[in-house]
Design brief:
With 616 residues, this protein is mostly beta strands. It is built from six helices and 40 strands.
């Protein structure tokens, strides 16, 4: 049977046709020629001006061509499009390739020398090159961007060989970003080698640096080496041996070097890893007088730690500064799923930026179906405490938090990307009650003689004595007043909704008669220097996607700003005079006014009622 057709599709619901997602819509001009035999399918599909919608994702192609053959003895698929070339060939029915790959991969993991014993004559090869992530978007995969993705591989059962090469550049996806990635793996009989290199890797905002992995087989064992480095200097070097078993894998840690510190391993039995669990049998890790022991599995375990030097965290989290100058962690955790949770921990003499020592204690010991908990951080001038109980059967929490901080500078490292300086006192309390996933919250935070200086741009904000209110939905401001350096007030009222964080919404009113936003000395190296003093009556409404602004802003007559430009742009300074922006309705009829309003609208926002005065 032969099927030939020419089709013009417009938002064709391919999802319903394929009994899949109903948001899978297809648009384009297609020509098909398909022959169906008793055990074979062969043909092609050509498409022009193709648009594929899947949920909110859209994949656009000027042209595409898909040609293929499926049969018991030979199969091939060739796909070419604006951003993709894919070639797959085999000497068997490709519809059975998934089962083949799963069986082969599982047998290799269970026993590296299984390739020698494998029987069969099947062979499979694949070559793939993509220049954009559009096809991944349509498939619902969390791949944001990359320059080029290249994959080439082959499996030959008769020769007992397998090869894989993959590479990409400037990849962003699944919370990971990296500059380059390259991996190569080869299997020949019972000998397997593999290597992977990735440069400038970030996971979320964590700078991992370079990742290097090497694997090779030694008889029935796989030797593995993981190296993490930054600026060519390794900060983690881990050597281990892996012994594949029929129902999992035994892991024998050999050596761990972290920032030049060598850790030793001792155990009764190796770590056992399976599809459903990880089992530790009294694994002990030591370094000088530090000890960490692990015993149990994911359902029930005991962990004890003694004399953990917290200053080592500086190298992991604070690369350019020494935040933790002293501190050692001691404690234990005992856990049985749905039955027991015991936690005891304390930190001796924790010092941040050479501050007065801070003591931290935490306990949570199960009593019946409840786990009472207590946390206390205290030093000579600061105290943070949390206490309450957690009902394990109902998964609900009933607790309170009290904050009494007399030196905000102690915690400046937590917000150093936003604030370059802060000082003063903060007091607060909150009640937390309800389901642990989304409890009810009610409380307040009070700032006393507090000051903050933002990082960029540099803005100085002072608070004499005022309160921010907390509830389940977010933060509320009731005439919350901040002051500039000259003690001129600016008040904020309204609500910031963060109940579905990171999504947010806001409805705020900001008012001031006189407030200094910028006061940069002329000796500064900033392009914008001088004094900017404003009066403002502003309403802000919106969320992460849409913004509505209604503002009356006066630039007060004490304002004196200088903007420094390069010599090449000196012509921009030739214009002199007074610029005055007034209410457009006084100058234009309704038709002209509507045109101006359209100009003031911007993507995701609306700016209306803006007026400003500049004085020479």
């Amino acid at each position: 049977m032969t099927i030939q057709s020419k089709m013009e599709l417009a938002d064709f619901n391919a999802g319903n046709f394929l009994e899949s997602d109903s948001t899978f819509l297809l648009t384009g001009d297609f020509v098909t020629d398909i022959s169906v035999g008793e055990s074979t399918i062969e043909g092609y599909i050509n498409g022009d001006s193709v648009s594929i919608h899947f949920g909110s994702a859209e994949y656009l192609l000027d042209s595409m061509n898909l040609a293929g053959l499926l049969s018991p003895d030979s199969s091939r698929i060739n796909y070419q499009a604006d951003d993709a070339i894919i070639d797959i060939a085999s000497n068997f029915d490709l519809l059975a390739s998934q089962e083949m790959l799963q069986t082969w991969a599982k047998s290799v993991l269970n026993s590296p020398d299984s390739l020698i014993q494998a029987a069969g004559t099947r062979a499979l090869s694949i070559d793939l090159q993509l220049t954009s992530p559009g096809i991944f978007h349509v498939l619902g995969m969390d791949v944001t961007d990359f320059d080029t993705l290249f994959v080439s591989g082959a499996i030959d059962e008769q020769k007992q060989t397998a090869d894989l090469i993959a590479s990409t550049h400037h990849f962003i996806g699944y919370g990971i970003s990296l500059d380059s990635f390259y991996t190569q793996a080869a299997a020949n009989g019972g000998v397997i080698t593999a290597a992977m290199d990735a440069d400038n890797v970030f996971y979320a905002t964590t700078d991992i640096g370079h990742i290097g992995v090497e694997l090779h087989t030694i008889k029935d064992t796989v030797a593995a080496n993981l190296v993490l480095s930054r600026d060519t200097a390794a900060y983690l070097d881990f050597h281990t041996r892996l012994l594949p078993m029929r129902d999992g894998m035994q892991v024998y840690p050999d050596a761990l070097d972290v920032y030049g510190m060598k850790y030793q391993f001792a155990w009764n039995d190796p770590v056992f890893v399976s599809d459903s669990s990880v089992v530790f049998d009294q694994l002990l890790i030591t370094h000088e007088d530090m000890q960490l022991s692990l015993d149990g599995d994911l359902n029930a375990f005991d962990i004890s730690f003694d004399n953990i030097d917290l200053t080592k965290l500086n190298q992991f989290y604070f690369h350019d500064s020494t935040v933790i100058t002293n501190g050692h962690l001691h404690g234990m955790i005992s856990y049985v799923r749905d039955e027991q949770l015991d936690l005891k921990a304390n930190v001796d003499s924790l010092s941040l930026y050479h501050s007065a020592p801070v003591a931290i204690t935490a306990t949570a010991v199960k009593e019946g179906n409840e786990v009472p908990f207590n946390f206390l951080l205290t030093n000579t001038s600061n105290k943070i405490s949390a206490e309450g109980k957690y009902a394990m059967d109902q998964r609900e929490i009933d607790g309170s938090v009290i904050v009494d901080i007399h030196d905000l500078a102690l915690f400046s490292f937590l917000v150093e990307d936003i604030l370059k300086e802060m000082h003063g006192s903060m007091q607060g309390e909150a009640k937390i009650k309800g389901p642990i996933a989304k409890p009810d919250v009610k409380g307040q935070v009070r700032f006393i003689d507090a000051g903050f200086t933002t990082a960029d741009p540099s803005l100085i904000i002072n608070i004499k004595d005022d309160v921010i209110y907390l509830d389940t939905s977010g933060l509320s401001f009731k005439d919350f007043t901040v002051y500039d350096e000259s003690q001129h007030p600016l008040t904020i009222s309204g609500h910031l909704d963060i109940a579905d964080f990171p999504a947010y919404a806001y409805d705020l009113q900001i008012n001031t008669d006189e407030y200094t936003l910028i006061n940069t000395p002329e000796s500064s190296t900033h392009q914008l220097k001088g004094l900017l003093d404003i009066g403002a009556d502003v309403t802000l409404k919106g969320n992460a996607k849409d913004t509505y602004v209604k503002a009356n802003i006066d630039i007060n007559d004490i304002t004196s700003l200088i903007y420094v430009v390069a010599d090449d742009d000196i012509g921009l300074l030739n214009t002199e005079g007074i610029i005055e922006f007034v209410d457009p309705s006084q100058l234009f009829d309704s038709t002209h006014l509507e045109k101006i309003r359209q100009l003031l609208r911007f993507p995701g926002g609306d700016l209306t009622g803006f007026q400003s005065y500049l004085y020479d």
